[in-house]
Design brief:
Elements: H1 13-27, H2 34-37, H3 39-43, H4 45-50, E1 51-57, E2 66-72, H5 76-82, H6 84-95, E3 100-107, H7 126-136, H8 142-156
Parallel strand pairs: 2-3
Antiparallel strand pairs: 1-2
Helix pairs in contact: 7-8
Length: about 160
């Protein structure tokens, strides 16, 4: 017998986010959210770095032969025009059918969050390192031992600006 989950039971964050964001993606023509979230993987790292999909426009009651609207940074918009056949091929290969037949490129800044800044960690003292080694010495499984040591080192290491 399956236990009913209560509203407060733990659920994967991905399932909650998908429910919240799906209506917004669908309004822009993206039935599959992965078109936006996996853009770099679909079109390649270089193209993905300088562009982003804005929406797909389909004719009424149709989900094929749409128009993909892409925003591109500065002069990269011209490069995208030359790459249009390749982009169409990659996007349609991702969908598995001829979903897009035309690309409209709009030049402008990308709507992306600023990159996360890398926090420098200060090295552990000899005493802290010895404690981590001693705490994991009796762990038999090598993979688990390495993981526990990484956790221990992370707990002791502090950012250099603290």
């Amino acid at each position: 017998m399956r236990k009913a989950s209560s509203p407060r039971s733990a659920r994967p964050l991905a399932s909650i986010i998908r429910k919240v964001t799906s209506p917004a993606f669908r309004r822009r023509g993206f039935a599959q959210q992965e078109m936006i979230t996996r853009w770099d993987a679909i079109v390649g790292e270089t193209v993905g770095k300088h562009s982003q999909p804005e929406r797909i426009q389909f004719s009424r009651d149709s989900r094929d032969e749409g128009v993909l609207h892409i925003r591109a940074e500065g002069a990269f918009a011209l490069e995208l025009q030359h790459l249009e056949p390749l982009l169409l091929e990659r996007v349609n290969a991702y969908f598995g059918y001829r979903a897009v037949t035309k690309i409209v490129i709009k030049q402008g800044p990308l709507n992306r969050p600023p990159p996360l800044r890398k926090v420098e960690k200060k090295p552990l003292t000899a005493e802290e390192q010895a404690f981590v080694e001693k705490s994991t010495a009796n762990t038999r499984h090598d993979g688990l031992k390495r993981a526990l040591q990484a956790v221990g080192q992370g707990l002791f290491s502090r950012s250099s600006d603290e």
